[in-house]
Design brief:
The protein has 6 helices and 3 strands. By secondary structure, the chain is of the alpha+beta class.
């Protein structure tokens, strides 16, 4: 690799997100799997897209197994966008966990992934987290209405 090749590769990488967003409205999530499972994850995401009627663009920090999944709206109806896509995202998260991964690599769970936490974590783990939240915030005033 020459310095020019590296620079060109980074230029392409940095332009993927703006290009995707210019092409179509999209929903973006990040997931992480062991690097060896990235091919299975990407092919699985494409199959899930076929099942739920969407295309996706995947890219990311492949050196650490972090994949950005951008689900494209394209010509999908608003109804399918609001019903089918969340179901498809759930299937992507299930696939990710089945491949030894987790729901987020760098952006955290947040409000958007809250409904899917039970895919990656056992109820016992969630109960412990709720207990910690309750111990430090008995009145529920810290970050109300978020994860717990």
């Amino acid at each position: 690799e020459t310095a020019a090749q590296k620079e060109e590769l980074w230029k392409i990488r940095k332009n993927i997100s703006p290009a995707v967003n210019a092409y179509s409205l999209c929903k973006s999530d990040d997931v992480v799997v062991p690097r060896a499972n990235l091919p299975k994850l990407i092919s699985g995401i494409k199959e899930i897209g076929k099942q739920f009627g969407f295309n996706s663009v995947c890219y990311g920090h492949l050196g650490d197994g972090n994949l950005h999944v951008n689900i494209m709206k394209e010509d999908m109806s608003d109804e399918n966008w609001t019903t089918k896509v969340p179901e498809g995202i759930g299937e992507i998260f299930k696939l990710t966990v089945s491949l030894g991964g987790t729901l987020s690599g760098e952006h955290g769970i947040g409000i958007a992934k809250k409904p899917y936490m039970n895919i990656a974590m056992r109820e016992a783990n969630l109960m412990v987290m709720r207990g910690i939240k309750k111990a430090f915030d008995p009145n529920g005033i810290l970050n109300p209405g978020k994860i717990f």
